[in-house]
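ok trying this again, last paste got cut off
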Amino acid sequence: QVQLVESGGGLVQAGGSLRLSCAASGRTLSNYAMGWFRQAPGKEREFVAVINFSGIVTRYADSVKRRFTISRDNAKNAVYLQMNSLKPEDTAVYYCAADQTSYKLWIPYQQEEKYNYWGQGTQVTVSS
């Protein structure tokens, strides 16, 4: 069983930055893709960014490209999301997810149904 715990959320003014962290325990995830998704009030959960097992391949939603950066540290079994130039529309609960069904998949999936482990989420609120 894998547990994912997010941290680093909070309240920030527009234009500011936050760094989200996701720590995994239970099993090593160094051979699997991980990602970040978010859900804003009244909206469905959406894809934000994913990273492959090696950390080399990343994919981003158009809305966050050039502002957010996903990274991972396999030695620490962790994934991060650096968020810069935050906008009020980035306000959401951010979820960390792991795809432990696709061993060493080079191009990580962007569809949330491919991810079988999820954290509890961390709130990010961006004020205008």
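PB: full thing came through this time. DSSP finds no helices and eleven strands in the chain.
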